[in-house]
Amino acid sequence: MSRSAHPAGPRHADVLPEGHYSAPPADLNALDPKVWASTVTRNARGVVTVGGIGVDALAEEFGTPAYFLDETDFRARCRAWAAAFGKDADVFYAGKAFLSRAIVRWLHEEGLNLDVCSGGELATALSAGMPADRIAFHGNNKSEEEIRTAVEVGVGRIVLDSFQEIVRVAHVAQSLGKRQRVQIRVTVGVEAHTHEFIATAHEDQKFGIALAGGQAAEAVRRALKLDGLELIGIHSHIGSQIFDMAGFEVSARRVVQLLAEVRDEHGVELPEIDLGGGLGIAYTSEDDPREPHEIAKALSEIVTRECEAAGLATPRISVEPGRAIVGPTAFTLYRVGTVKPLEGLRTYVSVDGGMSDNIRTALYDAEYSVSLVSRTSDAEPMLSRVVGKHCESGDVVVRDAFLPSDLAPGDLVAVPATGAYCRSMASNYNHALRPPVVAVRDGEARVIVRRETEEDLLRLDVG
């Protein structure tokens, strides 16, 4: 069904202003499976469903804005990553993408390990029953209290990020009468083709210890001398939202060169390397991510080839997908509040959320898709900018997209691929209440992170 059209901004490609968009899609009602979770479809009424439940019913029960997570899809992606790498490698879900106790339980049940990077993430993991020896602890400035907790509970590895941290972790471990398994995070000098804020392997940034100038080799020397540490390997992470495997090839080559230097100097072959995460997902139809089995095959071949050339036994590989697992499994559901056409430019579509539930567009200039999901429409496409309700001109959710020209207040729109870094980075800007996360599976929906209330905000304000 459709509604009478609004006066709108430009609708045809030959009169469109410059922006972050391609030509209008042939069918505005179509749902690209690359950007939507596997159980998402439209029913006979034209309403988008997930796990067999329509978004109209979900909005009625849980309100908007809200994140809806396809549990079936999440579990399937966990299994795909585990199967791709097999028993001779380790898959650590990067908890920073999105973490809750339900997520931890699903990871445990599906056989994945967990990577955390704060005391809060560690507490969440432990409270939900993740065995400590299946947890890796990251972070460029872990507090002594966080380190002590990690060592006490027996986390499987702590990734050392600086010379000071080498000493700090060793001191804590010795004081507790323990020997802590550790890896050293190195920056390998790879320029990942991604946004500068999420590229992490060039020397001029806060993470890791540089290979350049022999710093990483010196870090290995110091770690091997300390009784409180058991150095098990080298860690490298080159960035996020990466599609090109060339950066991983360069990174692996340089890490293996360091392993060879360690063998030659110390007579020790370190048994593990962690190549990090950062594999990209499809936020729009133009994105073309690799499947887990393709990634596993490529990384395994790269490491095996480099180790054979260096005369090393092939170490056990670890990877850390976060976004690649949870990102595509969720969408954010909004209700349209106002529709404001700007003649000759575009139409501004204001929704009941915004940068408080998805900061990535403002922070990284991230691109997203958006669809009308409460009905279908045969109206012609209009160039739209989906914006939030916050008091910021930069409060943009989807910078440029095509929506039906009969879009009206009260319609439901959804932004797919918001499972990663949206709820995790959500804020209370303008005292907005952070949305709930609702898991949907086989016709049932349940809250796994509840919506904040005004009482929650006021409880923290003790003034």
Subunit arrangement of the protein: single chain
The gross shape turns out to be globular
* Contiguous uncertain segments of 5+ residues: 1-5, 194-202
The share of residues in extended strands comes to: 15-25%
Q: Count of helices?
A: 12
Mean pLDDT: 92
**Helix-strand category:** alpha/beta
Distance N terminus to C terminus? 52 Å
Sheet with the most strands, sense and barrel status: 9 strands, mixed
Helix content: 25-40%
What is the CA-atom radius of gyration, in angstroms? 24 Å
Written account of the structure:
The protein has 463 residues and is an alpha/beta fold. Helix content is 29%, strand content 23%. The protein contains 12 helices and 21 strands. The strands form 3 sheets. Strands 4, 14, 15, 16, 17, 18, 19, 20 and 21 form a 9-stranded mixed β-sheet that branches. It has an 8-stranded parallel beta barrel with strand order 5-6-7-8-9-11-12-13, surrounded by 6 helices. β8, α6 (163-175) and β9 form a beta-alpha-beta unit. α2 runs parallel beside α9 (292-310), α7 (215-225) packs across α8 and α8 runs parallel beside α9 (292-310). It is globular, with a radius of gyration of 24 Å. It starts with 40 loop residues before the first strand and ends with a helix.
